[in-house]
Amino acid sequence: MHTAHFLLSSPRLDTLPPLGLPEIAFVGRSNAGKSTAINTLTQQKRLAFASKTPGRTQHINLFGVGKGQVDDAVLADLPGYGYAAVPREAKLRWQRVMGNYLMTREQLSGVVLMCDPRLGMTELDEVLLEVIRPRVEQGLNFLVLLTKADKLTRAEANKALSIARLQAGGGEVRLFSALKKQGVDEAAEIIWRWTHPDVG
Ligand SMILES: Nc1nc2c(ncn2[C@@H]2O[C@H](COP(=O)(O)OP(=O)(O)OP(=O)(O)O)[C@@H](O)[C@H]2O)c(=O)[nH]1
Ligand SMILES: [Mg+2]
After folding, report:
1. Percent above pLDDT 70 for the chain
2. Distances from the Cα of 136 to the Cαs of 65, 118, 142, in angstroms?
3. pTM of structure
4. Which of 30, 40, 51 for a ligand 1 pocket mutation test, highest count of atoms within 8 Å of Cβ?
5. CA of 53 to the centre of ligand 2 (A)
């Protein structure tokens, strides 16, 4: 994944071209660590813009990954939800764009839900789970990454895992820390499997 490079950025769905490659979407609350996870997985410092300020990512940003010059998969960094300071209009617009993306994006091959276990699954996470459930039932890959695991004790981590497994509806759940590089190889491997279903 370290060959990852920026492809394009779009505020809307209708200007997002079909790329014909398996796409993995990173979704979750604002500040959950989506952009940081993409940087960590691709071993790049500032591929996706991460920030202390929630609401940093405001477009659908696509990154190409593959061997050498040829992309064989796309990572999509999506804007986070649940950030209180965003005006209501913008929030609703984004919920529509994201909902439509998740429901209709044809080449979507997997969704990674980034969830800060100290906050747990919020109401908006539950809405997202409902939105993608029909596609997950039809075979869409789904992984929950419990982020910032470096902030949890072992007991807290185990408890967060059990709770998330109940909520994930059969999807896989893993602990993840960009800071401590925990769960990074495993997440990369899962995504690789999703995007190369014919191999091994
Ligand atoms: N301790 C710790 N902090 C992290 C980790 N991952 C991300 N962060 C911090 O969390 C904050 C938010 O990270 P981002 O990656 O920008 O979050 P995002 O989900 O992309 O946020 P939006 O773009 O607003 O949706 C930053 O200050 C990161 O440094 C982690 O594994 N451990
Ligand atoms: Mg972001």
Report:
1. 98
2. 23, 25, 7
3. 0.94
4. 51
5. 9
